[in-house]
Amino acid sequence: MLTNFIKALGTSITARDGVIPDLPVGKVVDVIINSNNGHLEGLWVKASDGMKILLMSDILHWNEMEFLIQDESDLSSPEGLPKLTKILDNEVRVLGTTVVGKFTKKRYGKVSNFTFDTISPHILSLRIKSGWWIFGTSRHIPRSKISKFSEEAIYINDQGIKIEKKEEKKEVKKPVIEG
Question: Cβ(53)–Cβ(76) under 8 Å?
Fold first, then answer.
């Protein structure tokens, strides 16, 4: 299933076989992305006993209403997942990060949302906005154009990306009416 980050943010995590069946045990607050390949490794979850990590492989069912897991033990503390230590040390934020062209070094804007696949789970595209409020522009950058995630920026292969030039307003001459 395709989904976007903004829709997933705040979604309830429900434990099927918890102390009370189908009871929400937390809410999604962020994603954990492997900065080397854009793979979603897990989710940061705000649970009753603090911030926990939910691995993508522990999700049984996923829709816009909830993430279904087996039980609350699927939520782990960062210390309980040594295989994620290196990824967590290099964790990068995606939402709000500046997108820069790898070759032109042009700043295209900031990430306002991103779509990902719940099966693969990889980032499929970035939605970036540039400019201010309603006067800005918005564009999608497909996964094939994303070349590197870093703390400073997300770098894209900007060869072949159409850069729209703003046209200057032509002054319209008003007809002179003599009378």
Answer: yes
